[in-house]
Amino acid sequence: MNSKDYELGKKIQQLLIKSNLENPIIESNIAKWQDSGYLQELNTKFADFLQTLGLNLSNDSLMKTPDRVVKFWVNELFYGLDYKNFPRISAQKNSFNYTSPLISSGITVNSTCEHHLVSICGKAIVAYIPSNKIVGLSKINRIVDFFAKRPQVQERMIRQVFVTLQDVLETQDVAVGINAIHNCIVLRGVKDSATENLTLELGGKFLDDDVLKDNFYQASLSI
Ligand SMILES: [Zn+2]
Q1: How close is the Cα of 72 to the center of ligand 1, in Å?
Q2: Is 113 a catalytic residue?
Q3: Which residue among 154, 160, 166, 201 is the active-site one?
Q4: DSSP letter (8 states) at residue 99
Q5: pTM higher than 0.85
Q6: Which of 10, 8, 86, 74 is closest to 40 using CA atoms?
Q7: How much is the pLDDT for 188?
Q8: What is the CATH code for 1-88?
Q9: Which of 22, 51, 116, 172 is catalytic?
Q10: 121 counts as catalytic
């Protein structure tokens, strides 16, 4: 079975556009990523930039760098910009009538700061209270990873994950926490290597019920 679902991806994109949460992108260019001629054009432009910067690309070690970086960005680091890569979500009816919070903790977040193009690395915690639908648990990790694999700001990324989960899980009762180290803080300006940045998004019962809310806050601090 194909692990991608472009139809669902397009639906989620409309939801993000409506919620004013889509990344600033030029969609017609991303659509050309499948085209080898376009990848060659990206290689040439990136090689030109590196040479203009002062790197000698005729050197053995650097010769293939533009090609490597373009492939890496398009296929791995920024694959989440292309909705053709949106994960297929296998859902089933909640026939067990499980109605307690389900919590996935320690989800890896490897993203990229869109202001400096350096890594944002951390962990996410996701909780939801199933209504009529439950999803395969690894799908939560895949949704987090899809939005992480874009040039990002943490506040937008967590909102994208949150509204997407509310939509696919068909419930408001969703909570997301992301705790991450931004390598632009490590490498630039204040050069602080230990600062962890925690963002939280709570919906439905996680917002209204003080016990659920407090417990989720506490759990998010220790991911
Ligand atoms: Zn940054």
Answers
A1: 20
A2: yes
A3: 154
A4: -
A5: yes
A6: 74
A7: 84
A8: 1.10.286.10
A9: 116
A10: no
Task: Determine the 3-state secondary structure of 175 from DSSP.
Answer: strand
pLDDT digits (tens, 9 = 90+) for 104-154: 999 999 999 999 999 999 999 999 999 999 998 899 999 999 999 999 999
Q: How far is the CA of 193 from the centre of ligand 1 (A)?
A: 13
Choose the catalytic residue: 160, 166, 182, 201.
182
Length of the chain: 223
In angstroms, what is the span from residue 170 Cα to ligand 1's centroid?
34
Q: Locate tokens 């220790």: which residue?
A: 222
Q: Which tokens go with 62?
A: 């650097």
CATH class of 89-221: alpha beta
Q: Kindly report, as residue ranges, where domains of CATH 3.30.1130.10 are found in the chain.
A: 89-221
| Ligand 1 centroid to residue 153 C-alpha, Å | 8
Task: Kindly give the residue spans of alpha helices, DSSP state H, lying in the chain.
Answer: 6-18, 27-30, 36-53, 65-72, 138-148, 154-169, 183-187, 205-208, 210-221
